[in-house]
Amino acid sequence: MISRRPAALRCYLVAMEFAAADARFVVAIHHTPQGCFAQVVNLPGCFARGANEVEALENVRAAIRAFLAITHLLQQQKPRVSLEISA
């Protein structure tokens, strides 16, 4: 008899509106003994935790908004580079 464990990974498509544009993000939910870990597949470094899937998805929506807002701000700023060369 083969025993199958429930999948520890689920994927969702999260649709959001940001800066007057619609965007869709693939979110992978990992189940752990401590709760759920939500990772946005197409935004590296964007993730959140929650006690369950619903909470993890709510938290990852906030993380996506913060990620996009910071990215938008960084694109508007001109990079400041100071370089000091000593011989």
Topology readout:
Layout: E1 9-18, E2 21-32, E3 35-40, E4 47-50, H1 53-76
Antiparallel strand pairs: 1-2, 2-3, 3-4
Q: Which overall shape is indicated by the principal axes computed on the Cα atoms?
A: elongated
- Uncertain runs are 1-5
How would a crystallographer describe the biggest sheet? 4 strands, antiparallel
Oligomer: single chain
DSSP helix count?
1
* Adjacency order of strands in the biggest sheet: 1-2-3-4
What's the pLDDT, averaged over the residues?
A: 79
Structural class comes to alpha+beta
Number of domains: 1
How many DSSP E strands?
4
Radius of gyration: 18 Å
What is the helix content? 25-40%
State the end-to-end distance.
74 Å
Instruction: Write down the secondary-structure element order.
Output: EEEEH
Beta strand %: 35-45%
